[in-house]
Amino acid sequence: MSAALNIKKGSSKHSAYNLRPNFSDVEETHTLAVLVDNEAGVLARVIGLFSGRGYNIESLTVAEVDHEGHLSRITIVTTGTPQVINQIKAQLGRIVPVHEVHDLTVEGPSVQRELALIKVACSGDKRVEALRLADIFRAKVVDSTLSSFVFEITGAPDKIDAFSDLMRPLGLAEVARTGVAALSRGAS
Amino acid sequence: MTRQMTGAKMVVQALKDQGVEVVFGYPGGAVLPIYDEIFQQNDIKHILVRHEQGAVHAAEGYARSTGKPGVVLVTSGPGATNAVTGLTDALLDSIPLVVLSGQVPTFMIGSDAFQEADTVGITRPCTKHNWLVKDTDRLSATIHEGFHVATSGRPGPVLIDIPKDVQFASGTYAGPKQARTSHYQPQVKGDLDMINELVDALEKAKRPIFYTGGGVINSGPAASQLLRELVDTTGFPITSTLMGLGSYPASGKGWLGMLGMHGLYEANMAMHDCDLMINIGARFDDRITGRIDAFSPKSKKAHIDIDPSSINKVIRVDIPIVGDVGHVLEDILKVWKSRGRKTNQEALAKWWKKIEEWKAVRCLSFKQEGSVIKPQYALQRLEELTKGHDRYITTEVGQHQMWAAQYLGFDDPNRWMTSGGLGTMGYGVPASVGVQIAHPESLVINVAGEASWLMNMQEMCTAVQYRAPVKQFILNNERLGMVRQWQQLLHGERYSQSWSEALPDFVKLAEAFGCKGILCSDPKDLDDAIMEMLDYDGPVIFDCLVEKHENCFPMIPSGAPHNEMLLGDANATDAIGATGAVLV
């Protein structure tokens, strides 16, 4: 594979146009940050793109992040071969209300966080064990009855996976997760 | 220039300010205020179609033949849903359209009101972008933005859904200049380092080929001129997709003819054996590539496209250039000239010798014998008798479309209107009307099959009403010819539902529409009959009865590479394997 496949950085305004020379069959997980106009239907456009073209969504979060500029940030975790990931970025870049597409997975280090509420119904020793584990994971108790807890936990998705796995034998009843929010590390 | 006016008046004002001369449409309850404004002015001509699908295809024909965006006006609900096929067609072929649809009043949206449909929801995947305008103050800016989006970057259809109360209410009108607020500004200049790399490859190539597509035509007539200069000065061979015919003249010395599934032998063989492929404004469609892993295995590939998502989507390329074809070609020529106009002459001469050998196969040859007209012969005679005319061709979809692409020659861009990506039967009749409205003095012929033609034949009323003298040249084999051909090659000659047991008498039908009808079944009468069609000052329906079981060749069978073309029936049996059969 030649370096010629790369469109050089700076040759376009959008990172999505940076075509990587990779046609491997190995599936990768990427976190994309998409800055969009907060207008009616924009989320439907993004989701419709993924379902219409058969791409995966592992997690998707969206909220307005610039109230004056009416800009929302959509964070998508997706999997696919490098070619599919490049297609996803290029297709996202084509949507008219999309301003920027950033692939946080390739653009340097990033922080990824998710919040989860986890309900555990248990009694006796199991209650003690649940609280002890919650302490290790720095999960907070946000609701408590004599027969249940609701824990609030934030962290990378695999930390939340690990915590809910540990809660399962103790009486895991319900889980609500927000999906991933992510930012690149450093000043810009 | 800000003024107060009603939403309906704004629509008409915005269209005028965008330079729109023609609107194709059909009225209904939710667009009555706009039609009332259209009634009270004379700058914009409204063409009343007979079905909203016809309006969109007519606008496509208008757009493709003029280079200007086509404009459509339809009502809510069924008006909008009938437009969906046309929108999808325009999206796949990158045709700039602005479709305005009426909608039930904002306070009734979501109540399942009469003629309510979620138009922006339904058309979201089949438009480049769409808008529901809920505030009259936003209406004019949205329409101007719609024109901007439809025509910039890779062109495409947009839809603006306008609720009836927004049309009645008053608001502030903003002209095109004040309204331009969009961040949507696609990149048009190609990366210079990549262009240098491409020029380097041009200089060294031993077996180069240009593979061009609809993007050259969309880029405008200047791009076609630059392409001609590049092809002629380098002396490289050139082939084109169905959508790109005419950007390089069929009479030019570098021309190899169309490539792809029913493309010419020499074009496909050259694509397979080349060492440098320069894709200009085409998208490696599956009709072109055949089996992907065997597609042009020995070549370095360059790809010029304004849409970054086209690059590396299907075929991995070595030299990607994102930009407008016209701009990039200009830069390529500049760089190539400044570096001394070098090519590998010796290798090129050898390459052309090889190509001449492929040409000698004469893949389009056929024998017209007996008393039945061969469809190829009909098109050959049509070409011969109309070649010098100021001529526009539209087609329907199927065998006749491929034969038209093979046997008709196009020396200029914007002269060939066909449904390439979506393959929409029923495209040709309305498209021919749209082309004729744009070019009232020119010869406009719709090459059709009888089955496709019947799908939107109601638009002949439109042709008659507006005195559009379109010529409907129907190759009538009483079959769904392409379906029948595939059933013969793939499904054991079980011709499931691929013929019509009842067809209208096309001559009587013509008379009923108020057109001229001509029937021709004998090859000896064909020239006279075609001349009669050309001489008649008005719309003609020409029923040309042709050989019923003729197959369209050459053909790359599904799942096969370019160098395994079928040249005729003799080698077609069992040519398509099980893996090929699942492909379309």
Automatic annotation (TrEMBL), chain A:
GO molecular function: acetolactate synthase activity; acetolactate synthase regulator activity
Annotated Gene Ontology cellular component terms: cytosol
Catalyzed reaction equations: 2 pyruvate + H(+) = (2S)-2-acetolactate + CO2
GO biological process, one term: L-valine biosynthetic process
Start and end residues of each ACT domain: 31-106
Enzyme Commission number(s) of this protein: 2.2.1.6
PROSITE patterns, sorted: ACT
Key word Ribosomal protein present: no
The UniProt record lists the keyword Cell membrane: no
Pathway recorded for this protein: Amino-acid biosynthesis; L-isoleucine biosynthesis; L-isoleucine from 2-oxobutanoate: step 1/4; Amino-acid biosynthesis; L-valine biosynthesis; L-valine from pyruvate: step 1/4
Pfam families from the UniProt entry: ACT_AHAS_ss (PF22629), ALS_ss_C (PF10369)
Keywords of this entry: Amino-acid biosynthesis, Branched-chain amino acid biosynthesis, Transferase
Family indicated by similarity: Belongs to the acetolactate synthase small subunit family.
Function (record text): Catalyzes the conversion of 2 pyruvate molecules into acetolactate in the first common step of the biosynthetic pathway of the branched-amino acids such as leucine, isoleucine, and valine.
Subunit: Dimer of large and small chains.
Name of this protein: Acetolactate synthase small subunit
TrEMBL record, chain B:
Catalytic function, reaction form: 2 pyruvate + H(+) = (2S)-2-acetolactate + CO2
Residues covered by the Thiamine pyrophosphate enzyme TPP-binding domain: 397-544
Residue ranges annotated for the Thiamine pyrophosphate enzyme N-terminal TPP-binding domain, each copy included: 5-120
Cofactors (names): Mg(2+); thiamine diphosphate
Leading EC class: transferase
Domain Thiamine pyrophosphate enzyme central, first and last residues per copy: 195-331
GO molecular function, one term: flavin adenine dinucleotide binding
E.C. code: 2.2.1.6
Pathway annotation from the record: Amino-acid biosynthesis; L-isoleucine biosynthesis; L-isoleucine from 2-oxobutanoate: step 1/4; Amino-acid biosynthesis; L-valine biosynthesis; L-valine from pyruvate: step 1/4
Record text on cofactor binding: Binds 1 Mg(2+) ion per subunit. Binds 1 thiamine pyrophosphate per subunit.
Name of protein: Acetolactate synthase
Organism: Donghicola eburneus
